[in-house]
Design a protein that fits this description.
The structure is a single chain. The longest helix has 23 residues. A hairpin with a 2-residue loop joins strand 1 and strand 2. This protein is an alpha+beta fold. The protein has one domain: Sandwich (protein yfey like fold), CATH 2.60.460. It starts with a helix and ends in an 11-residue tail after the last strand. It is built from 3 helices and 11 strands, in the order αβββαββββαββββ. It has a 7-stranded antiparallel β-sheet, covered by helices on one side. It has a 4-stranded mixed β-sheet with strand order 3-2-1-7.
Length: 201
């Protein structure tokens, strides 16, 4: 009987020693939290920052690598193509035009034939009312320069914009150009160049 108690006592001491040793060992470091994956730009969603590989602020050379050069190089772009050029890149989606100012992509436009939507799910043919309801108080309406009401321009700035004329080159926004039928005729996304109503001016 004494031998059994002695054996149990020794076993208990060994177990206690093992537990103490385990507690003394430094805890393994917790695995580092993985950085959230950067969401790739979607090729069929227009945002104030760009469309697919075409990003506002990139150089013309990088734009050409992504979408190809002017699909109609003999067509008239801006009045001074070195200072400002508007064209449809050969590999860009249908109805998409770009504005390049001083060698930098400043604006992407959805024109006739474009089926691309904005990140709010809005596209050509949507009503001005749908845009105002979607953005709520974050949209700024301005009368159209050349067309009678209900034609108007609706601006939604995502960065650096205001209700006054925006000049900050870091500003980004989307302009919905509304026709006399009350529907979106064109959409412009990019920097303050979205405010230009006569091409490059």
């Amino acid at each position: 009987m004494m031998i059994r108690f002695a054996a149990i006592g020794v076993l208990g001491l060994l177990t206690l020693a093992a537990c103490e040793q385990r507690q003394a060992e430094p805890a393994a470091p917790a695995p580092a939290a993985e950085a959230p994956a950067v969401q790739p730009a979607l090729a069929d969603i227009l945002t104030a920052d760009g469309l697919g590989p075409a990003r506002i602020g990139m150089t013309r050379a990088d734009l050409v690598k992504a979408w190809g050069d002017d699909a109609q190089p003999n067509a008239v772009g801006g009045p001074d193509s070195q200072a400002c050029d508007i064209f449809h890149p050969a590999k860009a989606p249908e109805g998409v035009q770009v504005m390049v100012q001083d060698g930098v992509l400043t604006r992407i436009t959805l024109a006739r034939g474009a089926t691309i939507k904005t990140d709010r799910g809005l596209g050509l043919g949507d009503t001005a009312m749908a845009i105002k309801q979607t953005y709520g108080g974050a949209v700024f309406a301005q009368p159209h320069k050349y067309r009678a009401a209900p034609a108007e321009d609706l601006f939604a700035w995502s960065k650096g914009g205001s209700t006054a004329y925006v000049t900050d080159p870091a500003a980004r926004g989307v302009r919905y150009e509304i026709g006399e039928d009350g529907k979106v005729a064109m959409i412009h996304a990019g920097d303050p160049s979205i405010q230009l109503v006569e091409g490059c001016s």
